[in-house]
Amino acid sequence: MANIHVPVLRGLGGFRADWLRSDIPAGLSIAAVGLPSAIAYPAIAGLPPETGIYASIVAPIAYALFGPSRLLVVGPDAATMAVLAAAMAAIIAAQPAGAPVDPVVIASALALGVGAFYFAARLLRLGVLASFLSRPILVGFFAGVSISILVGQIGRFTGVRIESEGLLQPVAEILRKSASIHWPSLLLGLAMFALLWIVKAARLPVPGPVIVVVVSVLLSAIFNFEGAGINIVGDIPTGLPSFSLYAFFQMPMDRIVLGSAAVFLVSFGAGIVAARSFAARTGEEVDANQELIGLGAANIAPGLFGSFPVSVSDSRTAINLSTGGRSQVAGLVSAITLMAALVFLHSALRILPIPALAAILAAAAISLIDVPELRKIWRISRMEFVFALIAMFGAISFGVLNGVIVAISATLVYLLHKTMFPRDTLLGRIAGRDGFYDMQRFAQARGVPGIAICLVQGNLLFYNADYVRTRLRAVIASLPEDTRWFILDASAIAHIDSTGAAALDVLQADLAARGISFGVAHLNAECTALLERAEVVGHIGAEKLFDDTEDALRAAGRQGGEQPLAEVSDEGSLRGGTLTGQGGRDGQNAH
């Protein structure tokens, strides 16, 4: 923790004046694409539209100063906003009855909390947290979040106030209130949603959200949508974001901490997945620990300027790459452009119709459902697909905030499942070759007469020790009567705990009762020390712990008066295909 490098101005490293020819157009494009989402996304959390513009101004500036990447662009993100909305709802619910509630203050406190989690994670070098939520579980979680966002747009499309929450309740409520639907609002929203898909299908050079904003503002000005009863954005402050510190101590800090942790996990998990996918295209290296600093600063800044948490923005980064951005100057240009828009386009932004923003949010939510990736997961691993569905239905059924807990729990269950049932296999020789081979995989492999060599491919810990002991007992029970040595190849066992040590102690006792010598090969120093402390080494015999399998065979040959190292013939040798566990793989010393 003492050697922490703060990547100040790394995103501007090596900047050359001729890069401005690329960075300025890229920055203008980022602002054009970012403005619609900056206005629309705050609605997910019930925040005023200017907070999104503020976040899109101060966060890129902070990341340009402290972020390590030259090309990533930060900003409002639909998934992060959905988790933020759930966290804010929990905090508001914890406020005393009648107490004043300012959503902006709560969002700012959460942004500071998220930034603090980023910095704490960097101090503890927890960049590995980026891999904690697996890709399948993230894909499933985002699909659930997208459905939640879609349901949340019902009121904005129809002009009807929806008071219920969840998945089915809002649908049932709009059906009950169908007589109150404002049909001009619904038709406008559906038309703008269709326009987004037409632009996408036609692959026009101008992004769909930009076209929707321009068209809907023009229509609003021509046909006076406000007078027609269609909800509009309304007045937006014309000033630039100002520094402010609110009385955060008056809020329930336990809810702030828990909410910040949930937003941090999703923000960082999604942000690093996006960063790595873009880095694969550009050849940049992604250092998750350094990104913690850049993203931490990008969240602290909105918290100090009356806004909300952010993450890596897929759409803005994609525009930056496609338009040839070369450095974080593009992000600075986009921030300056949005400042100008806030000052000079106030009147136009004011009459932007809410159904058009609902269309943008609905399209963004649908884009979170990665159907091709779900199909790929189904094709590769049905089990991982099941966990993706668990994460998806967790976000839908229990709410987005609880969905984070479900996703994390699913990750833990998945990890446990992958390690609870380690594979085991018997190893043998192949005539004319060196080394040892998996006898299930290689039909020509033959066991050494009188000796069984068993490879366990996994750790031996409290949650799988009983399974491993049962499997090895089954293997031992199936050995030929003339077997005099059982050698455990521990090359794939990295960790053993006290429960695992007890399982090995029982195993050696079972072997001793059958008159079979028990040897262990390739046991690492840490595991050896633990077995010594558990007195298992004393029961096995220190002389039966071998550096490698060849040493074990030599010892067995000396004891039996034979030379098991000689070439193994195909006749009369031990075959172990029926003794393997779950289709074992090769170990470090097996092929």
From TrEMBL:
It is a multi-pass membrane protein. Keywords: Membrane, Transmembrane, Transmembrane helix. The chain crosses the membrane at residues 26-45, 51-66, 78-98, 104-124, 136-155, 181-199, 206-223, 229-249, 256-280, 292-312, 324-345, 351-371, 383-416. PROSITE patterns: STAS. Residues 441-556 form the STAS domain. InterPro entries: SLC26A/SulP_dom, SLC26A/SulP_fam, STAS_dom, STAS_dom_sf. The keyword Thylakoid does not apply. It holds the Pfam family STAS. It comes from the Bacteria. Residues 574-591 have a biased composition (Gly residues). The keyword Kinase does not apply. Residues 558-591 are annotated as: Disordered. This is High affinity sulfate transporter 1. It comes from Rhizobium viscosum.
